Amino acid sequence: MRFTSYLLALVFAFAPNAAMAIQARGNVPVVRDAEIEGLVEDYVRPLLGAAGLSRSGIEVILVNDPGFNAFVSGRRIFINTGTIAGSERPSETIGVLAHEIGHLAGGHQQRLREQLERASTIAMVATALGVGAIATGAATGQREVARAGSGIAAGTGDFARRLVARYQRGEETTADRAALTYLEKTKQSPKGLLDGFEGLMRSNMFSTSRGDAYLSSHPMPQDRLAFLQTAAKASPYYDKPEDPTLQERHDLARAKIAAYTGGAVAVQRLFAKQPFGLATRYGIAIATHLNGSPSDALTKFDALIQTQPKNPWFHEMRGEVLMRAGRAREAADAYRKAASLDKSKSGVLQAEIGQALVTGGDPKSMKEAVRLIKAGLQSDPDNPTAYRFLAMAYGRLGDVGAADLATAEGHWHVGAYRDAKVFAARAQQNLKPGTPLWRQAEDIINTKISPKT
Fold this sequence. Notes:
- The protein is of the alpha/beta class.
- A 6-stranded mixed beta sheet has the order 2-1-3-4-6-5.
- Among the domains are: about 1-105, Metalloproteases ("zincins"), catalytic domain (Zincin-like), CATH 3.30.2010; about 110-190 and about 205-235, no CATH class; about 400-453, no CATH class.
- Helix 3 (about 90-105) packs across helix 5 (about 145-185), helix 12 runs antiparallel to helix 13 (about 345-360) and helix 13 (about 345-360) runs antiparallel to helix 14.
- It has helices at about 35-50, 80-85, 90-105, 110-140, 145-185, 190-200, 220-235, 245-270, 280-290, 295-305, 310-325, 330-340, 345-360, 365-380, 385-395, 400-415, 415-430, 435-445; strands spanning about 1-5, 20-25, 25-30, 60-65, 70-75, 75-80.
- The protein is built from 18 helices and 6 strands.
- The two termini are about 30 Å apart.
- Strand 5 and strand 6 form a beta hairpin.
């Protein structure tokens, strides 16, 4: 599991080639993990189809935050790891995603920007009128006019905020209705959506200390809850049970998140009712690995593999343990096994095989490492760790230009555009002009960036 930096402070760090590690990508802590990404992809795909949206161009990003929340930005759906860990059933996470897809399908973000611009215009005009009235009153000695002008200027900001908040409340309700529609079209229970909202109420995410409904960015909880309770229970699929296979995958993902963010104690607390269950054992095995006990961790993962020999993620984590123990060649074999079993064909796994080969250091394996890492990047270009290992592989092959270009690409994909330009310029010094790699470096160099970047 990989954590990439995006907007919140990073709390911990892991090895760059870990199954769950930190990468730098802007300022929000983004999680990269093939297992959890594959799970969320399976949650999202049918919902997007029900919404009439193409999967192409829509990115779902896991955010390293313990809070139960999700949001949309552009064509991206951000969902906190805390939402997954805090959802006892898959339908709760699916309900949250359905709501956010409702925002995406409705183009709510673009409309919100328009409302903000409208509110800003109203505020500027009203402020100008107020200031003008104040000046007129002062010049003519008419105190009433001056006081009226002060009232206009003071009330402008409040009016603009209420205008935007009212719009947001309407869009939240629209997204709720859309989510219910998508869930019914895909024959899924809306109970998770209802339970998730109740969880938000408990955490007071939508409350306002002033109790002013107009200043709340969402409808008051009682209003939304009343609507959801009525509409959700009217669904013919309300009492549909969870899919056992999906429930197991969901629990394994929750266990992994708990292990990486809170250790064995967090895993045991999360699955207190299932102390010897598969998810608990998985989380404990990961926590054992993170605590620096490779021998014990391998024993635990081998036992898990005996239970489910075709589970790719058990093999991937076994590879991670071997990597940490300095047994890179064996780790590469474990990653290969994981990739062969992975139905999602994750680019992360492909790159991990190559990264293990690079770490192993065998010169004869470097060309294969380059091929595998590039194959992984082909399907998953936003993997800065893979670019770093690609640069190392090229360096060991003596291809300095390609190594510098890989480094430039890595910087580019984390938003470090100035560093990307520096390495692209260095790459061109060792690349033949006019070749595809040289032109790729040229594209990086010529791309305009903002002064603050």
